[in-house]
Amino acid sequence: MSWDTLSENLIGQFLIATPSLNDPNFSKTVTLICEHNEFGSLGLIINRPIEGNLNQLLEELQIASDEQLESTPILQGGPVGTERGFVIHNQGAWKHTSQINDWINITTSKDILESISNGMGPDNCLLVLGYSGWGPGQLESEIRTNSWLSIPFSDEILFNTPFQHRWEKSIGSLGINAQNLTEEIGHA
Hints:
The protein is of the alpha+beta class and 188 residues long. The chain has helices at residues 3-10, 54-60, 111-117, 138-144, 155-160, 166-172, and strands at residues 14-17, 30-37, 40-45, 49-53, 73-76, 80-89, 97-99, 105-107, 125-134, 148-151. The two termini are 16 Å apart. The chain has a single domain (3-180), classed as VC0467-like (3-Layer(aba) Sandwich), CATH 3.40.1740.10.
């Protein structure tokens, strides 16, 4: 498969870690691919909540909040740049917003947090700290060695499925029962 074919297919897709992926940073993760080009790839894990919530983060950033956001979790997006924040959302544009596909955007500027704190943010959003990164050709190699499966973007998985069920639901969308997967995945 050429780089161009993979790049068109992966941006905005979910990567599902297979049981053969032994890296504890990615075990049973679902990752939204935000960038994929000749320079490498960037993704955000969408099923790993960390301690803390949005109210606590807003306090740290000295952003006053009119909203009660204790129930808004923060996700670990990956092991790289854990001090960097990303907001995955379904609508709106702020200072540093990038459109990933027709349904989803990523914003990295503080102004979206100010909007959320005032009740003027997007209807659906996830706050993610850190990201997952791959060098040139690395992700393609990992896909060829069956470390990852890919599925089309799903708004249902991203915003409506509990975090602890996103991996199984993603695998299930392929018609596979997650309990039937083994660490030994081969090529036909």
